[in-house]
# Entry
Amino acid sequence: MAILTKDQAQALLKKVLSYSKADECEVNLTGTDSANIRYARNSVSTSGKISQSQLVVSSAYGKKLGVATINEFDVASLEKVVRRSEELAKLAPENPEYVSFLGPQTFAEAHTYVESTAAITPKLRSDLVAQSLQVARDAKAVAAGFLEDNTGFSAMMNTKGLFAYNTSTNTNFSVTVRTEDGKGSGYATRGYNDITKLDTKKATRIATEKAVKSVNAKAIEPGKYTVILEPAAVAVLLENIFFRLDARQADEGRSFLSKAGGGTRLGEKLMDERVNIYSDPFNADLPSNTWSGDGRPQEKTAWVEKGVIKNLSYSRYWAEKKGVKAVPGPEAAIMEGGTKSIEELIAGTKKGVLVTRLWYIRDVDPQSLLLTGLTRDGTFYIENGKIQYPIKNFRFNESPIIMLNNLEELGKVERTVSVESNNNYLLPPIKVRDFTFSSLSDAV
Amino acid sequence: MKRRNFVQLAGMGITGSLLSFPSIGNAVSSEILLESPLLASQKKQLADVALNITKGLGATYTDVRIGRYLNQFISTRENKVQNIVNTESFGVGIRVIVKGAWGFAATNEVTADGVKKAAEKAVAIAKANSKFQKEPVMLAPAAGQGEVSWKTPIQKNAFEVPVSEKVDLLLRANGAALKNGASFASSNLFQVNEQKYFASSDGSYIDQDVHRIWPTFSVSVIDRASGKFKSREAMSAPMGMGYEYMIPKAEDKLTGPSGMVLYKNSYDIIEDAAIAARQGKEMIAAKSVEPGKYDLVLEPNHLGLTIHESIGHPLELDRILGYEANYAGTSFVTLEKLKSGNFNYGSKQVTIFADKTQPGSLGAVGYDDEGVKCKRWDLIKDGVLVNLEAIRDQVHMLGQTESHGCCYAQSWSEVQFQRMPNVSLAPGKETYSSAQMIKDVEKGIYIAGRGSYSIDQQRYNFQFGGTAFYEIKNGQITGILNDVAYQSNTQEFWNSCVKVCDESEYRMFGSFFDGKGQPSQVSAVSHGSSPARFNGVSVINTGRTI
# Structure
């Protein structure tokens, strides 16, 4: 199915709801055209183009809910999926946490769709990859990378009169360049709504430079170091905070935001006062959808302000139970930064470590949000304001909460991509003291 | 890696209205899961349409996969059902070699016309790809199997068990945990049935019916006064079995330390949930580990993940060659190390085998997704690296002429590629129990179950946690420990293996949602072992205060 316009989506959803016999019915419709090119060993390995669309119908009788989905859109299929969801609802056990669907809401127009990305041609896609490959070949290095682009729409409607519609585009690119002898490796990643902003040549040059400069890495002792984390490394640590802002977990006593003796740490200062984290669907550099999947408007929301936990996210059920506003979780998170470039942060560092990328991040202890993982694809020793030499990779054990208490400096914010979740964020490079490296890795 | 996403979904308490599984299939009623698939003869007719068309269009090789993929996921918390999702996905994927290049196309129109169009598209894609192909694809020969079939040897089809019975069992497990002191308990049951038909221009027509099941839970104990919380995960393993796994049998139970029960080929979820709650309470009061070197006794449901990460992945040939360099990484293992014939991966106690035929394992099938009959082969023999994991288009790089039969696609709509087979540690040959193993340790830690796991992109440095840790002092278990993680280097770790228990305690660990590739595909894989001892491993303390 093609990307539907607002009118087309509205007409289709009305048609689906016209078949409903349940007490309440809600329909979510999505469609995505996505394409990707994967390359390795300096040559394209796979490519694919996928069009997917799906209709999700939720029918409720009292507190009994049934959900059915379908990816065919002829009249018979539309009626079939509604009937199926009703049958499932009748069979379902009563859900005491069921909350009646939302009524009509007002949504501002999102800025997530860029025509140039939607209009991408196979030629542009392969040119972007060819440019990346050329940089690596010219440097007699070996590139492996992945380019993907998506154009999609989402819409929802329910029997209580809610209707929402949005379109969006996105492209994510990542490249790992290794020297031919396998002794050096570098990485770069980029994400945009607008593909014309993507410069694969420049990104691959950075990755290549890191690969060449990281050859013959020296081993230095593990321990606590002042560290400059590039935004891609910041992303995989901080998103563990963004994912865990749920009020219910905190109220139930099983979150780093739970308080000894009961209650939550909402309103407590947990980080350095220069830490400000928020989400804003209208940010020009990181636009996101203006409504959440259950039809709640997404508004600009402060999560951490001057180091203080300002908001927690709520499901509609939990908010109703607690008598508070049902603030949905962040769709895209932003951390405020400073004015310095990474080079300027390095220039102001007496002794420290520059980290390009962190990898295989896992929870070690949800109580303290302790995470482990490793540096990868470009780790360098800094002394007297200059990069001195490449160093072997480290394993770290660190909590992003402790890390944001040990803040030294924030650099200039840029858009980056998490290698763990594929999510895009606006984050600064950050300089922190006492970052805990606990062992060495021989991996290149 | 993908598991994380599923666990997040399962743990988020989604009530159903928003949860959809576009890549898995359409949500359907449970009755549809029991509908009969197309007959093998009907599928053969459709496959022949594709085989004839592609041959006429110049394909030198074609395979056709007609797949019906069924899933049922049930999730509960405390006394509530959170979600019941049934999904069905049906379609056909066609892969061809034309002018030495691969082409692939898939469609959910499983009709002669739909198959014809997809076949033509696959040929057109291969032709386009051939322009950029540096060297033609070299496919190791695979004998045509004729018309054959294979079925997971299940005793009870999980989809035939009424949903209410399954929900009742999960709620009773939650209840047992709450009754024994848990603050919260959530449980899930994942059931999968892949009805796969494979046909190729080699003359194979293979009909397979594959079943997998995974019951699991998380039990939390919270001490409000101190603000401490601990959770204990299930000691079950995902298995290539039917619902018989959910019916406990006395002969499948093994006794672990301090009243723990460990399970072989059947699982007692109610008993385990009750034990988990009691253990969780002990954890709240337990002491924090003193960092240092310890002798570790690792039980199979823990050791499986260590095998997976430090042996299963680094021995994947595509990874060694650099095809995964941008994402999962490469490997410290090289073709040179293999060819040397004397690369010392571990101690003499360490014999590791790959086996796609092991009954009850997640990876067990009769034939892989490119029609190769599955088998068992050695990877590490008495500590020495002897082979890798490879499929038809790469095995020639090892100087071998036969694929290892470990090719898999998560669905009909995605192209198959090399995946990890079941990789297991052979049990010790002499009679030796874990009870005796514990007795022989002076200063050690016994670790059960999976926990936090992280390893570098070439698989040297790793750090693993677990579900439950017991201190061993002078041959005795002295109590539960908190904040334990061990760090090591793959080669050093496997060389510190001094003893493996005998086969009477051999059990399987499994990974239900193992991720690989970009875009990522999941696959399910098991790792068997008996408890094993590793001397002088570095243990860190992970406790922090924020």
User: Anything to note?
Assistant: The CA atoms of residues 127 and 200 of chain A lie 9 Å apart.
